[in-house]
Design a protein that fits this description.
- By secondary structure, the chain is of the alpha+beta class.
- It is built from 19 helices and 15 strands.
- The strands form four sheets. A six-stranded antiparallel sheet has the order 8-10-9-12-7-11. A four-stranded antiparallel sheet has the order 6-5-13-14.
- Helix 2 packs across helix 19 and helix 3 crosses helix 19.
- It starts with 39 loop residues before the first strand and ends with a helix.
């Protein structure tokens, strides 16, 4: 949140100031009183006034160049958000056919990942910290820009309005009134410019973070588990410090790939389920995930006939069905026993033993079948696990690099084909998850960084840095865009007013009318857009 505490720029305008009108030539040292009420409280700081003023005056030449660049950026941003407002107005009037949600997100810089309705306590802490950083960068920009023009800061205040934190800088109004229009623009645009630079710095540090942390962390090899809540369906299978190696045979390198792969498997399964209306169709469509099970194992298993779609497998066994192959003549041969074909016969097998066998079928995420739907020998059948309604069968291969067994072997990294090697050395293994894949993927906290020396609290440091930078980027972007909007009570109001002063062909009365029309329209459209975003994401 940002609040301006100076008067709008303009000649011959009688306005009431919010601060005592003084014309000091040096930073003032007055006794400040803090404000406390039921909806608003602030803490005013004047200790930095002298330092900021001296810095601004000492580096005035360089700072004027720096903030002149900011004027160009801010005016471009003002033009950009104005065009988005026009687009939003067209959407309201049904004049345009486009993505209204996208334009609203661009208008305010909102990200569901940051401003989502389901923020945890930790996420709320990141949001609070990033807000304080962003508004401080914004207000220090105004203060330093004013100091470079010889205008001292009255005070800097940190406030809490209802539940929204923010900061403001109080400047002397009379001295601002005496500035030339372009000089005043340097002061008004400084906050937006500094927020934009803050976004660029955060993005650059995020990009270089793997390189910066490379002496202490391994990045992008396998996502490491930071936390597995007791309510997670993976609780009991994964522990903090474990590394997820693959999902359905596909190598996973980071937490983003983990989410993308689970979404891909879920989408494929949903498409297959929509095509499956009978058991025979289900056997064909779900041939995608099969295992080459030896005939001897099938003969020893508890075979169950498919009668009225009811299952009779014990709780510790899983139902499998023979997959119809298109390149193998053996699976097209039908062995009739009691009038029921082999393809319609189900088998009760131990999933823990089956997942150790070779894979077949064409539905695994990796191209393990190389275009063939079955790769089993003549002594094997390609069997597919029978899916339960609303559930998805996936294999998860993990490693435990910080377990005593692995530490004794000195294993700090794992090859992509090392799944069997994990089990042999008790450094990990493979298990099957059957259930809601999307909720499962969101139930664990992962990081792309693995400490080079043991698992401890330091494992959480990269995740803390990443989230802090990400939240600061988004909040600073939101502040920059909000203060570029031509709306009342924000920087965009002052920027627009001073910018209109450069149109000398317009009389002061016409400029005032244009000003009121822009501010009224911008405030109305922005309010409607904000309300729509609020109801879509939070209601």
């Amino acid at each position: 949140m940002d609040e301006r505490r100076w008067r709008r720029h303009g000649r011959g305008q009688a306005q009431t100031s919010l601060l005592p009108l003084r014309t000091p030539t040096r930073p003032s040292r007055t006794t400040l009183s803090n404000t406390v009420s039921c909806c608003y409280c602030d803490y005013k700081i004047s200790a930095l006034n002298t330092s900021l003023y001296h810095f601004g005056r000492k580096q005035a030449k360089l700072l004027k160049i720096w903030f002149s660049i900011g004027v160009g950026f801010s005016l471009t941003a003002l033009l950009g958000v104005t065009l988005i407002l026009v687009w939003e107005l067209g959407n309201f009037l049904h004049l345009f056919h486009g993505s209204s949600d996208l334009s609203s997100s661009l208008l305010f810089g909102f990200s569901p990942q940051v401003y989502g309705s389901r923020l945890s306590v930790a996420d709320a802490g990141y949001l609070l910290l990033s807000t304080l950083i962003s508004v401080s960068v914004h207000e220090f920009g105004h203060s330093i820009a004013a100091a470079s023009e010889g205008i001292p800061t009255e005070y800097i205040a940190i406030f809490l309005a209802v539940l929204f934190p923010g900061a403001l800088v109080a400047l002397n109004y009379e001295l601002l009134e005496e500035l030339q229009p372009f000089t005043a623009l340097r002061v008004y645009c400084a906050g937006v410019w500094h927020n934009a630079v803050c976004c660029a710095v955060c993005a650059l540090v995020l990009f270089l973070l793997p390189l910066i942390l490379s002496p202490f962390y391994i990045h992008g090899e396998s996502p490491m588990v930071l936390d597995v809540p007791s309510t997670s369906p993976l609780s009991g299978y994964l522990s903090p410090g474990d590394a997820i190696v693959s999902l359905d045979g596909k190598r996973i390198h980071n937490d983003q790939e983990w989410m993308e792969t689970t979404a891909l498997i879920d989408e494929r399964t949903l498409q297959s389920s929509n095509l499956s209306k009978s058991f025979e169709a289900l056997a064909i469509v779900h041939q995608m995930k099969g295992y080459c099970v030896p005939t001897s194992v099938i003969e020893e298993s508890n075979e169950m006939l498919f009668i009225e779609n009811q299952s009779a497998c014990p709780d510790d066994l899983t139902e499998f069905v023979a997959v119809q192959c298109f390149n193998s003549s053996k699976s097209d041969n039908v062995n009739i026993e009691d009038g029921i074909s082999q393809r319609q016969r189900r088998h009760c097998l131990n999933a823990k033993d089956v997942v150790k066998l070779n894979k077949c079928g064409d539905g695994w995420v990796t191209e393990i079948t190389k275009g063939s739907s079955c790769l089993c020998s003549q002594e094997e059948y390609c069997l597919n696990p029978v899916p339960l309604p609303g559930s998805i069968w996936v294999e998860i291969t993990f490693a435990s690099p910080y377990s005593p067994e692995c530490l004794q072997l000195g294993r700090n990294s794992f090859p992509a084909s090392g799944a069997s090697d994990f089990s042999e050395h008790k450094c990990g293994g493979t298990f099957v998850f059957v259930g809601d894949l999307i909720s499962m993927a969101h139930s664990v906290r992962l990081t792309a960084y693995q400490p080079r020396w043991g698992f401890s609290f330091s494992a959480h440091l990269p995740n803390i840095l990443e989230k802090s930078l990400m939240y600061t980027f988004h909040v600073s972007l939101t502040l920059a865009l909000l203060n570029s909007l031509p709306v009342y009570f924000l920087d965009g109001e002052s920027i627009l007013e001073v910018a209109l002063c450069h149109f000398t062909s317009l009389s002061s009365r016409k400029r005032a009318k244009v000003m009121r029309a822009c501010l009224l329209g911008g405030t109305l459209i922005s309010t409607l857009s904000f309300m729509r975003i609020f109801f879509i994401n939070f209601w």
